[in-house]
Write a sequence for this structure.
């Protein structure tokens, strides 16, 4: 099985990183109670940390690393499309050279922190965009619109599943739908452009 390339904002990895890991965090509060005892309280999930190590090689290896570093300097979160993990809105928080760079070989490490964009003001209510007056097709179906074909989200669908049903990659589907700020948050009735 060939994996799709990792992408973040405008940067597409020429080949996927060699290693990557994901760490889930849960916040737990500890409360002291009399007689040397304690009680623990789960205060919820925290951000995920996605990190790894990769290498660029070939004549333009260092130029490729510099292009990745330019993305690091951009402010704000972006969509991280990973070949294995679920896509996420994330901040690019760490980029480091893991050896002395050469023109034809660069080994690097990276870290992304997931952000929960449900709390960002930039998210519009679900279904706010898209053509109006369309009836909802069945799951995996579509409706013709004046500007192309659309798909109306039904309960339980994911963007990844919709992309697969229409023969698209997730990146292609997101490019057709710039109104989607977080690919993990779609609602039934929301209209997605597919053609």
């Amino acid at each position: 099985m060939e994996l799709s390339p990792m992408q973040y904002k405008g940067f597409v990895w020429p080949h996927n990183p060699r290693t990557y890991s994901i760490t889930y965090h849960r916040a737990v509060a500890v409360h002291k109670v009399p007689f040397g005892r304690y009680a623990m309280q789960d205060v919820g999930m925290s951000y995920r940390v996605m990190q790894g190590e990769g290498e660029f090689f070939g004549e333009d290896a260092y130029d490729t690393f510099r292009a990745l570093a330019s993305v690091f300097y951009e402010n704000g979160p972006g969509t991280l499309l990973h070949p294995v993990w679920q896509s996420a809105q994330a901040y690019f928080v760490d980029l480091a050279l893991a050896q002395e760079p050469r023109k034809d070989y660069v080994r690097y490490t990276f870290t992304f922190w997931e952000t929960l964009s449900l709390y960002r003001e930039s998210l519009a209510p679900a279904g706010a965009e898209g053509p109006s007056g369309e009836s909802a097709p069945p799951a995996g179906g579509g409706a013709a619109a004046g500007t192309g074909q659309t798909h109306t989200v039904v309960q339980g669908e994911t963007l990844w599943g919709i992309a697969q049903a229409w023969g698209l990659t997730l990146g292609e589907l997101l490019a057709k739908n710039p109104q989607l700020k977080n690919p993990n948050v779609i609602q039934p009735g929301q209209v997605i452009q597919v053609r």
Q: What stands out?
A: The longest strand covers residues 88-97. Residues 118-146 have pLDDT under 50 and may be disordered.
